[in-house]
């Protein structure tokens, strides 16, 4: 195992951006590119990919974010600063790209970083699929970055990561843990109007904490025991 | 910000790149753009500048690097990794963008950062006009970055000189949370021999996650509810 970065572009509208992202990926020695329902990729994408046709041609095209993040251990969504002001519980707390690098330094596993549409970013439902939020600190006056520029900054920061000994918990086990928490919130009759927020909060906290495999098992045992007692 | 960053593009060949650079500058709140003998700037430059027409229109056009760096206190030239292998005395030592940021933290004055031609970079004579060299750490296989991508990384690093701080939960509230978890482990008759390890695990996880004040309150509410039900 080693550190693998997957770049996921969600419904990119402009093929030039996709080509530019492929080029930037190759500049920083990454190649795992997944495109969710992309625009048509033709000559302009290839021209802007420059010498990174291998990355562009190797991109996996899928119809949903769920498929794009399959096999990833941690899912990170990028949002603009302006987005942070609405739906705080979904978008907080945001990490800077540098903090993301520090967080994953010395770990093994696959991190998928998601980039939203050029015009509309992500829906809230899409953002809930992520374990962590990263936001590039930009100007308040004009925070909207070009898609390939935003990607370049993430690639630049995360290319500085040294893979280490620490194995991240697998995405699949985390998914089971989160389902477990969902059930538990039902079992303890947690107030309906708070349920979703609290569930998401656990996802974010455990996402930030970068759980180790044994911790996930212990947490599941802990929650399982509570469930038994409550029932 | 206590310093002024000037971006100097030397004989850029593609107007799209100039427009993209203007946009990235505005994203990071910079506006001092100087172009040395640029290509024609027409519709494509304006399209890619997006909402940064003010930066593009405000760009100063000059016939020489000497004029472009007039009034700058420090001149930094960007070179690719490959360039470092030749003419070492001119190109060494290269700073990373991050080192550049650290270097200029807390200083006053104007730094001019020069970017060379998309195809041929700088001549040695031109490089000698710079006080420092910065080089973005890239792949050996394909180190040649798009001009606006390279500029974006420099802007990103140098804009970060005063990063903000996230409000963390107070130690006292965390302590209450951990006491709470300890009581809960008793209440649910968690196996005695595992109790201490599991308690510590929560401490580690929540420590790493750097909880926010509101999250601590929600967690305590959650655990309190379980306690009520279990008793």
UniProtKB/TrEMBL annotation, chains A, B:
Q: Which Pfam families match?
A: SpoU_methylase (PF00588)
Gene3D superfamilies per the UniProt record, alphabetical: 1.10.8.590, 3.40.1280.10
InterPro entries, per database record:
Alpha/beta_knot_MTases, RNA_MeTrfase_TrmJ/LasT, SpoU_MeTrfase, tRNA_m1G_MTases_N
Give the top-rank taxon of the lineage listed in the UniProt record for this protein: Archaea
Keywords for this protein: Methyltransferase, S-adenosyl-L-methionine, Transferase
Signal peptide range: none
State any single GO MF term: RNA binding
As for family, the record states:
Belongs to the class IV-like SAM-binding methyltransferase superfamily. RNA methyltransferase TrmH family.
| Entry-linked PANTHER family | TRNA (CYTIDINE_URIDINE-2'-O-)-METHYLTRANSFERASE TRMJ (PTHR42786:SF2), TRNA/RRNA METHYLTRANSFERASE (PTHR42786)
Quote the protein name from its UniProt record.
Answer: SpoU rRNA Methylase family protein
